[in-house]
Amino acid sequence: MAKTAARKRLDPAERRTQILDEMLKLCANQHFASITMRQLAGACGVNIALLYHYFDNKDVLVHATLRHAIDDFLVAFDDLPKDADAPLGAADAWIAATIDAAPRLTRMVKLMSDFGTQENRDAEALAMVDEFYARERETLRQAILEGIADGRFRQVDAERTARLTSIAIDGVFYGGPARNDFDHGGNLRDIRDQLLEFLARPG
Amino acid sequence: MAKTAARKRLDPAERRTQILDEMLKLCANQHFASITMRQLAGACGVNIALLYHYFDNKDVLVHATLRHAIDDFLVAFDDLPKDADAPLGAADAWIAATIDAAPRLTRMVKLMSDFGTQENRDAEALAMVDEFYARERETLRQAILEGIADGRFRQVDAERTARLTSIAIDGVFYGGPARNDFDHGGNLRDIRDQLLEFLARPG
């Protein structure tokens, strides 16, 4: 009865979101290929037929999970107020969104990583991943270029600095579980502070 | 007959190394939990009984694979000549070893990551991983402290800078497959160059 009650409470959009959130959680500790529809149904407290009502097959579900995770982050970033006086401009909002969303991003990068290390590259998934990284790099690069144009930052290679900052952020998330270091907020703030020190004009 | 000939060629130490190398290769594209002893035997061109002659069970084998990968890197680093005039001292040798060993390190961090994201934390494996990172951070930290003591580098928080550099190196390896960016050499050289710029005294 509890299950039926739970099912009644959610409208289709909420149910879809719940399924994708549960799938993303399972992906944190398991390769998506080894997660069964039955297992996911159990985690959602629904029957397996309902999953197939929302997603034709597991392939569609896994791609929708990645899409959901990325969009969710990008929407959170877009919704964040952009403080014109923030030292890193929109990049400060990006880093703040990253800190806020750290638990979800940990799951998202695990899913990205599982797609990335697959023997057969999945073009559709990797295109979504590319879109995410392009947005991150571009946000960082623009913020650095604006600071240089304003004379607040010294002349640096903005493309390289943005790329290396994006790589360092990756190190926090992808490497955290192996390093047993889950202080994502602290590490991300340190990356930001060191970046600002790097960009500071001498004197 | 080919298999028999191959088996005769290797002495026990070589055979053990071959098995561990093949296992490490399989770990690059598969979670270690889903690799079967049969699959590994096939990859090595030996029969499954021989694997059990060297390793009592898969758990022992997987731990030996991680140990092998880490030791292999540390030996390569220790063997590398340390150029007293290198701007980053021993850390330059560390980064050079990392560039040289990039394909193997990609496999090693995938294995580390699979241990790190397991639901049940594996204390033995994580202790080996910790040992590797402690060595990396300490090598970087010492090199930075020496440069500060010599007056070549400005005063920075050596612990933080070493930790963030280690995290950025992680980003190159762990994040590479998802970002579809396999220019490990280029990215590592950029991290080194940016670090030296960060450490440079103004003027």
Question: Strands, helices and their partners?
Answer:
The structure is a homodimer of 203-residue chains.
Chain A: H1 2-9, H2 12-29, H3 37-44, H4 48-54, H5 58-79, H6 90-100, H7 102-116, H8 123-150, H9 158-179, H10 184-199
Helix pairs in contact in A: 2-3, 2-5, 2-7, 5-7, 5-8, 6-10, 8-9, 9-10
Low-confidence stretches of chain A: none
- Class of secondary structure makeup of chain A: mainly alpha
Number of helices of chain A: 10
Largest interface: A-B, 46 and 46 residues
State the order of secondary-structure elements of chain A, H for helix, E for strand: HHHHHHHHHH
| Range of helix content of chain A | over 70%
What is the tally of beta strands of chain A? 0
What is the residue-averaged pLDDT of chain A? 93
Q: So what's the overall shape of chain A? A: elongated
Alpha carbon gyration radius of chain A? 19 Å
Largest sheet descriptor of chain A: none
The first-to-last residue Cα distance of chain A is 70 Å
Provide structural commentary.
Chains A, B: This is TetR/AcrR family transcriptional regulator. Chains A, B: Keywords: DNA-binding, Plasmid, Transcription, Transcription regulation. Chains A, B: Residues 36-55 bind DNA. Chains A, B: GO terms for molecular function: DNA-binding transcription factor activity; transcription cis-regulatory region binding. Chains A, B: Residues 13-73 form the HTH tetR-type domain. 2 copies of one chain form a homodimer. Chain A is an all-alpha fold and 203 residues long. Helix content of chain A is 76%, strand content 0%. Chain A is built from 10 helices and no strands. Chain A has helices at 2-9, 12-29, 37-44, 48-54, 58-79, 90-100, 102-116, 123-150, 158-179, 184-199. In chain A, helix 2 packs across helix 5 (58-79), helix 2 (12-29) crosses helix 7 (102-116) and helix 6 runs antiparallel to helix 10 (184-199). Chain A is elongated, with a radius of gyration of 19 Å. In chain A, 37% of the residues are buried. At the A-B interface, helix 7, helix 8, helix 9 and helix 10 of A face helix 7, helix 8, helix 9 and helix 10 of B.
